[in-house]
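User: I'm putting together a small comparison set for a docking exercise, and I want a reference complex before I start. The sequence is below, and the ligand is coenzyme A. Could you produce the 3D structure with the ligand included, as structure tokens?
Assistant: Of course. I'll restate your input first, then give the structure tokens for the complex.
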Amino acid sequence: MRALLNHERVALLRERGGPRSLGFWLLRKALALDVYTLFALPLRDAGTACPPGCTLLRLVSEEDLTHCPDALLDQIGPHTGIGVRKVLAQGGRIYALVEDGKVRSQTRIDVGSARTDTPCALTCEVGARNAFLSFLYTHPASRRGGWAKKLLVATASSMAREGLQTCFSHVQATNLRSINTFLSLGWQRAGWLLASRGGRYLGTVGAQRALRVLRRRA
Ligand SMILES: CC(C)(COP(=O)(O)OP(=O)(O)OC[C@H]1O[C@@H](n2cnc3c(N)ncnc32)[C@H](O)[C@@H]1OP(=O)(O)O)[C@@H](O)C(=O)NCCC(=O)NCCS
């Protein structure tokens, strides 16, 4: 009984959105159905949200890489799925908040079209003036310090200044921490993506017209 009460899922029941997240977890266990929430955010410039001493690192081009210290690239690389150079080679970018030489929180942005391997090999087409966010990650030692929120605000502002309009993302519906992060910043639910627990793409439900998800040969 104590093991049950201490189970991470049960502990999360006390958090905002916990019961809903538990429902999706049970759905996954009982029906082998993996549900992802699609999110959308109209982009606007709300400033950098960086505290003093903290900077927003933006890696878009080969030249950005040559100016970025190896120590930072070493911290970022393992949480990009394929490594920083490959992300850039695919047309993606990395945004990260850096303080005292430490990467606090980071994410990947793709403009126009994004490749994702979660839950399986997919391409998310969002149109030339929109973006897709993935691989949001805060180092465990920095979690619950507001770093993901600051990063998302600064990244959205940077994209808005570039003239981009809407950013989309997809988050596993059981990932309460991530769902709460997006909701607390005003991201809107923009449909659902369904997959089998084995990683077979089943389709989207109620997805905004600007977002088209296509199966990709791995
Ligand atoms: C999701 C993640 C990026 C959040 O990073 P973070 O820097 O700790 O987030 P923040 O401190 O900015 O908190 C943002 C919001 O997330 C929610 N949140 C964060 N940790 C939470 C927890 N343990 N339980 C419930 N909600 C939580 C809260 O709503 C919080 O806002 P609040 O503190 O104002 O209530 C981080 O937990 C992480 O890296 N997880 C592993 C990777 C992952 O799952 N990435 C998402 C894939 S899309």
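The chain has a mean pLDDT of 94. The helical segments are 2-6, 8-12, 18-31, 62-67, 70-76, 84-89, 147-161, 176-184.
User: Thanks, that's exactly what I needed.
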